[in-house]
Write a structure and sequence with these properties.
The complex is a heterodimer of chains A (92) and B (586). Helices cover 13% and strands 32% of the residues of chain A. With 92 residues, chain A is an alpha+beta fold. Among the domains of chain B are: 121 residues, Flavocytochrome C3, Chain A, domain 1, CATH 3.90.700; 140 residues, Methane Monooxygenase Hydroxylase, Chain G, domain 1 (Up-down Bundle). In chain B, strand 23 and strand 24 form a beta hairpin. With 586 residues, chain B is of the alpha/beta class. The chains are: A alpha+beta (92), B alpha/beta (586). At the A-B interface, helix 1 of A face strand 15 of B.
């Protein structure tokens, strides 16, 4: 795995209704999209981070979410350091 | 608890599920339930290019230049391609209904980008759009659409399937579906392999649930791997991009290893989906013999392609976009002579739930359509899976609706519900965090790809079956880190893991049982097609707590000489027969 890492902030709603960003450090190994980063976080750092996905190829629309304030497909958005990832309902 | 009652329940909303719903709703009330977005889920949106029918039918629709072709002639080719393991009744069903099903899709707006003798070139997206508009146009009354629900078990009562239970992802609540008949249209178990070319929700749910409910599965050892699939970077992993482009496969020494000794085999490899079997086999052999790359693949090069042909290709794929992916970065490296690491990836499952030509399973009330069914393509699928899904979807929809006519909705017993839900409750409430779903899934994916993959032998299959058995035992103690019920991806993954383990375990046992090589099932320790002993399906069903296999003769009108033919020679003979017939017709 490469040495290069980035930090992303993921906001989730906890059971008591509070909404917080948590930061996660994700390794980069070549072209990586937001879906890949979320998968890494979910599988290796924090299984409570949850999202939906299906085709992974920008066709089905399942992974639409809010990325830096805009509604984007996670599988077609290249991940970058400092990115803020929010639920779909938070976007414009 | 939320409850949906309908005459027919359709589980899955790719092409087969959508087509089944369109047909069933003509005479019955229908509920379609899907893990992903309705009509955009599963393998269909990603399916590459073509939908097939016999040349005669396509010619009548104004497309093919092969008017003399017929369903019967096409059937013969499919039997050769399937190494004579196809259920011939299913092949007849497929070829006879293909023309009408393609015509319907055209009527619903499917776009045609090109034609071949037996195929229209289109896209998975266009097929899905046509089916969605078909459902809107044809449905005389509303279809109940339930998205984002994972069905985890079928409900059986007095030997009949009478419904299903699911978990709503958004709320974490259980959802009850009661129906007079149920159609499974859930696709393959792609996600069980380290490298696969399937959508995330393809986890063998239909096959595993049908098996647990008592239905027969068939040909579970038959798995097609597509070659030239990108293994890296993460954003492109699993894409079919290089499968559709012209290129050369190289090993780590830079040597091209696809050498065609037989001209007919070369022709099949270059002009049909025979390339899947032939390239995958050769790629894994290079890797096994130490000439692969660091990720366990081989290399795809486009260095031989002259600049102007590169430009022409870019015109076909403006901006180097394929599906929704942007390959411009990678393609500028390819132009400079870079070789990308690629490998075979699980792509299609010939085996699955055993069905009749009316798409009935072996249990009353349960039907199956599309990739989750088995037996149509025998040991090797070359003809289009897109045609399979619409033909079987149409028939399953019609038959399930008809069968529902004389039936009543069967009330679930409270005790039964409690028992089934309790199993899920244990997963989500279990305290000890000793076994994680991710660890088990990683192990499963490695075993599947490395030991129940392209090339097989008794020792590795035996080891795989034992390891899978152990993982299945361990998975009974599985617990989740995420304790909340709503939006719990880990919970869905635990449900899926159980199903994938079930499918691969049966696939390994079946592959071990079949002591010959046939089609995509290549046994290094039995390198011959054994028509004396093995022109038989392996059928498996659950007995108490073990898998009971029986082998049954293939349903066929064709008698073959009872000989053992070396596997490579069988491919040469098949190629001779297929190419010979093509030339005869000219």
């Amino acid at each position: 795995m490469s040495e290069k890492t980035i930090t992303v902030a993921i906001r989730s709603c906890s059971i008591d209704g509070t909404r917080n960003y948590r930061e996660y450090v994700v390794p980069l190994d070549g072209k990586t999209n937001v879906l890949n980063a979320l998968e890494y976080v979910h599988e290796h750092l924090d299984p409570t981070v949850s999202y939906q996905s299906s085709c992974r190829r920008g066709v089905c629309g399942a992974c639409l979410m809010t990325i830096n304030g805009k509604k984007r497909l996670a599988c077609e958005t290249i991940v970058a350091d400092g990115m803020k990832i929010d639920p779909l309902s938070e976007g414009t | 608890m939320q409850q949906h009652d309908s005459d027919v329940l359709v589980i899955g909303s790719g092409g087969a599920g959508m087509r089944a719903a369109i047909e069933a709703v003509k005479t019955a009330s229908v509920t379609v339930v899907s893990k992903g977005p309705l009509g955009r889920s599963g393998a269909t949106v990603l399916s590459g290019a073509d939908i097939m029918a016999d040349g005669g039918s396509l010619h009548r629709l104004g497309y093919s230049d092969k008017p003399g072709d017929s369903p019967e002639a096409w059937t013969q080719d499919i039997l050769v391609e399937g190494f004579w393991l196809n259920d011939e009744n299913l092949v007849d069903m497929y070829t006879r209904n293909a023309g009408a099903c393609v015509e319907e899709l055209l009527g619903w707006g499917m776009k045609v980008r090109g034609t071949e003798e037996r195929a229209l070139i289109t896209t998975g997206m266009s097929i899905c759009a046509a089916l969605r508009s078909g459902l809107a146009q044809e449905a005389s009354h509303a279809v109940t659409r339930v998205e984002g629900v994972t069905i985890f078990e079928l409900v059986v009562s007095h030997g009949r399937v009478v419904g299903a239970l699911g978990i709503d992802f958004a709320t974490g609540d259980y959802v009850v579906f009661r129906a007079k008949t149920v159609i499974l249209a859930t696709g393959g178990w792609h996600q069980a392999y380290r490298f696969n070319a399937g959508a995330d929700e393809l986890t063998g749910d239909g096959q595993a649930m049908a098996y647990r409910a008592g239905a027969e599965l068939v040909d579970m050892e038959m798995v097609t791997f597509a070659p030239n699939i990108l293994l890296a970077p993460p954003a492109h992993r699993g894409s079919l991009w290089f499968y559709v482009l012209p290129g050369t496969l190289l090993n780590r020494n830079g040597d091209a290893f696809m050498n065609w000794e037989d001209p007919n085999v070369a022709k099949l490899a270059l002009t049909s989906e025979w390339n899947k079997l032939l390239f995958s086999k050769a790629s894994i052999r290079e890797v096994r013999e130490g000439r692969g790359g660091p990720l366990g693949g081989v290399y795809f090069s486009m260095k031989h392609l002259p600049e102007n042909l590169f430009d022409a290709l870019e015109e076909d794929y403006p901006g180097w976009r394929f599906q929704g992916d942007d390959f411009s970065g990678l393609m500028s490296k390819m132009r400079d002579g870079y070789a990308a690491e690629v490998g075979p990836a699980a792509e299609y499952f010939e085996g699955g739930i055993r069905i009749s030509e009316r798409c009935e399973t072996s249990i009353p009330g349960l039907y199956a359509a599309g990739e989750c069914s088995g037996g149509l393509f025998g040991a090797n699928r070359v003809a289009a899976a897109t045609t399979e899904m619409v033909v079987e979807g149409m028939i399953a929809g019609r038959e399930a609706a008809q069968a529902a006519l004389g039936l009543e909705i069967f009330p679930f017993s409270e005790a039964k519900l409690v028992e089934m839900i309790d199993e899920q409750e244990q997963v989500i409430t279990r305290k000890t965090e000793e076994v994680s779903v991710f660890e088990l899934r990683r192990r499963l994916r490695d075993i599947s790809y490395d030991k129940v993959g392209v090339l097989r032998d008794a020792d590795t299959l035996t080891a795989a079956a034992a390891e899978l058995e152990e993982i299945r035992e361990t998975s009974k103690r599985l617990s989740l880190t995420t304790k909340r019920r709503d939006h719990n991806r880990e919970w869905t993954e635990a449900v899926e893991l159980r199903n994938m383990l079930q499918c691969v375990h049966l696939s390994a046992l079946s592959a071990l049982e079949r002591t010959e090589s046939r089609g995509v099932h290549v046994r290094e320790d039995h390198p011959y097609v054994d028509n004396e002993n093995w022109r038989r399906h392996l059928v498996v069903e659950k007995r108490e707590n073990h898998a009971a296999f029986v082998s049954i003769p293939v349903v066929s009108k064709t008698v073959l000489p009872l000989t053992r033919v070396p596997y490579e020679e069988a491919i040469v003979r098949a190629a001779e027969s297929l190419v010979g017939r093509q030339e005869e017709e000219r």
